[in-house]
Amino acid sequence: MKELKTYPAITADSRKVTPGCLFVAVKGRDDDGNRYAEAALAAGAADVASTDRHGLAMMADEYYGHPSGELKLVGITGTNGKTTTVTLLYNLFRSMGFECGLISTIANYVGSRRTETVNTTPDPITINALLREMVDTGCEYCFMEVSSIGVEQERVAGLEFAVGIFSNLTHDHLDYHGTFAEYLRCKKLFFDNLPASACAIINTDDRNGAIMVQNTAARVVSYSCRGAADHNCRIMEETFEGMLLKLDGTEVWTRLTGAHNAYNITAIYTTALELGADREETLTALSELESAPGRLEILRGPRGLNVIIDYAHTPDALENVLKTLRDVAPERELWCLFGCGGARDKTKRPEMAAIAEKLSDRIIVTSDNSRTERTEDIMEDIRAGFSTRGLAKALFIADRREAIRTAVMLAGKNTTILLAGKGHETYQIIGKEKSHFDEREVTAEAFRLETGSAQE
After folding, report:
1. What pLDDT score does 242 carry?
2. Which end of the chain is less enclosed by CB atoms within 10 A, N or C?
3. Which fold has domain 4-51?
4. How far are the Cα atoms of 7, 23, 27, 152, 440 from residue 53, in angstroms, in the given order?
5. How far apart are CA 233 and CA 273, in angstroms?
6. Could you tell me if 20 and 7 are in contact, meaning their C-beta atoms sit under 8 angstroms apart?
7. Per-state percent for the chain, helix, strand, coil, to nearest 5
8. Which residues is 298 bridged to in the sheet?
9. 300, exposed or middle or buried, with CB in 10 Å at 0-12, 13-18, 19+?
10. Phi and psi (nearest 5°) for 88?
11. What is d(CA 294, CA 292) in angstroms, rounded to the nearest whole number?
């Protein structure tokens, strides 16, 4: 095998082989790339290298010239808040005149150029290719979501992080990790691998924050919205339009709302300061930021209806959003429409039902991305979490479009309707078919139908 840099391309996907490239055959959890070696050579690969996941990450890092060391790479891990935090950090630093990159669930950005994303944390070759392009186009920072699965599969191995952020740890991905202890171990591994030159930023209001940094070599900085920490935040006022916060004693208005967003803003503020940003400039820029797409996104409809689109798809995220909507407008009736993803962690389904029952006045259970499971089976798992009282205020409508129309039609004046679980997604996966489904469009259509009925 030649020196890596002499190959015109490198790939671990035999379907993406190009003439003269190096095909890296990786033995993974569910498949073995060595099975495709002959097909790769037949497609024009010059050589085949057989390795494991760690080896792939090291090869990708070497092939692209260790790009993570040429900019300030910031990674955030945690169950909730990752997308909002990295997106707002990207927007914050761009607003202060810095060229930046973003690797997130919603999209990847190299400066202002957007590319679509498949996984929260891409494969090592994609990550390093993006980082190399960022460096070559003048980016000084990259803000990146780091998932527990990405850590376990060594997608971030070899990357040189300047900052690692821990947001929180709650129930998710147990379909993959098996146990909460294993889920925690994978999150912690990210901090175990941070270099001494890095900064580890932790939310000390989550009891797992201290666990994350038990074995890290990085310098630890803490933030809190409830207790003592290096950086503190308090909510002074809260409305649908935003919050008045007190950050380290200084009042600042933000267009985001909800206690969970107070944590996100505090993490962003702390990170900006650790990266050397001016405090006053940071506070001013924070007041101009808008939430990430599909995160507490408000659509205003007829009869004073507020439809809230949010990505909340875990028990903790659903509880946070519903509590926020209760706190912001306690006088409004609150409806919750949600489903659960198929071929994913089944244990959270009844938990989410119990939370919806506790915090909502009316509930509609519907489909999410059912994937290869029957929507009706998923809905039955959710049904098991309701008490008799909960079932009395719940409707079960498998078609999500029809469920949204029904909610808009039946809701009374000045009602808040939460559409939980889809957020920024503009598709729905039922079976193996991925079809266009944008809740903004569906809701707008339901508003038009309702307005037309009222005029008749």
Report:
1. 95
2. C
3. 3.40.1390
4. 20, 14, 7, 10, 39
5. 14
6. yes
7. 40, 25, 35
8. 308
9. exposed
10. -70, -35
11. 6
Tally of residues, the chain? 456
Contact 55, 72 (CB under 8 A): no
Q: Cα–Cα distance between 237 and 249 in angstroms, integer? A: 15
| Token pair in block for residue 147 | 């998932």
Count CB neighbours of 199 within 10 A.
19
- 322: its two tokens: 């519903």
For residue 367, the 8-state DSSP code is -
Tell me the domain boundaries of the chain.
Answer: 4-51, 66-286, 297-455
Residue with tokens 């979490």: 385
**Taken in order 315, 320, 325, 330, is the CA torsion positive or negative?**
positive
- Given a contact cutoff of 8 angstroms between Cβ atoms, the answer to whether 407 and 306 are in contact is no
Structure tokens at 69: 């060391």
Question: Which one, of 209, 219, 174, 202, lies nearest residue 349 by Cα?
Answer: 174
66-286: what CATH class? alpha beta
Task: Give the pairing type, strands 297-300 and 362-365.
Answer: unpaired
Cβ atoms of 368 and 339 within 8 Å: the answer is: yes
Task: Dump pLDDT digits (tens) for 390-446.
Answer: 999 999 999 999 999 999 999 999 999 999 999 999 999 999 999 999 999 999 999
Report whether CATH 3.90.190.20 matches the domain 297-455.
yes
Burial class (CB in 10 A: 0-12, 13-18, 19+), 456: exposed
Burial classification of residue 33, based on how many CB atoms lie within 10 Å of its CB (0-12 exposed, 13-18 middle, 19 or more buried): buried
Question: In the block, which residue shows the tokens 């985001």?
Answer: 256
Does residue 271 carry a pLDDT above 60?
yes
Please write the tens of the pLDDT for every residue from 129-140: 999 999 999 999
CB-based burial label for 219 (10 Å; 0-12, 13-18, 19+):
middle
Based on the number of CB atoms within 10 Å of its own CB, is 298 exposed (0-12), middle (13-18) or buried (19 or more)? middle
